[in-house]
Specification:
Strand content: 15-25%
Order of helices and strands: HEEHEHEEH
Largest sheet: 5 strands, mixed
Bound molecules: tetrahydrodeoxyuridine
Radius of gyration: 14 Å
Number of domains: 1
Shape: globular
Helix content: 25-40%
CATH architecture: 3-Layer(aba) Sandwich
CATH superfamily: Cytidine Deaminase, domain 2
Length: 134
């Protein structure tokens, strides 16, 4: 059972570590593994902009590199300064998430006052993946 308030809080804390001198848009994420362990991430930008890594991907790569497989939920909190809007995962992150998690992964978004939950399958239908490579 995922504690949504807890993972939103951890994502909000992780956001404080964002390295985002170019956009000023800081993002934090908290990923929950099937065994209950949690991994946080923040965005890490680069002067060569395309080398920027999003918060969600940092959280996933930390978990996978720690040997984790199987994921329940990921909270994402982002904005410039105070959180006022939901931050949805970018297209590149949706592709990476779909490689590593199933379509039932819960994506927990927070706008500073309310959260909403959608699934990866809802955000990224008809995705291209390993099933398509034969
Ligand atoms: N960003 C994330 O970390 N996650 C998202 O889902 C959306 C975008 C980051 C990338 C970049 O550092 C900044 O937000 C502005 O695009």
């Amino acid at each position: 059972m995922v504690n949504y308030q807890e993972i939103i809080s951890k994502a909000t804390d992780a956001r404080k570590n964002a390295y985002c001198p170019y956009s000023g848009f800081s993002v934090g994420a908290c990923l929950v593994c099937s065994d209950g362990k949690m991994y946080t991430g923040c965005n890490v930008e680069n002067a060569s902009y395309g080398e920027t890594v999003c918060a969600e991907r940092v959280a996933f790569l930390k978990a996978v590199s720690d040997g984790k497989r199987g994921f329940c939920a990921i909270a994402i909190v982002g904005g410039k300064g105070e959180i006022t809007d939901f931050t949805y995962p970018c297209g590149s992150c949706r592709q990476v998430l779909s490689e590593l998690a199933d379509s039932g992964l819960e994506i927990v978004l927070f706008n500073g006052s309310e959260h909403k939950i959608c699934t990866l399958g809802q955000l990224f239908p008809n995705s291209f993946g390993s099933k398509d490579i034969k």
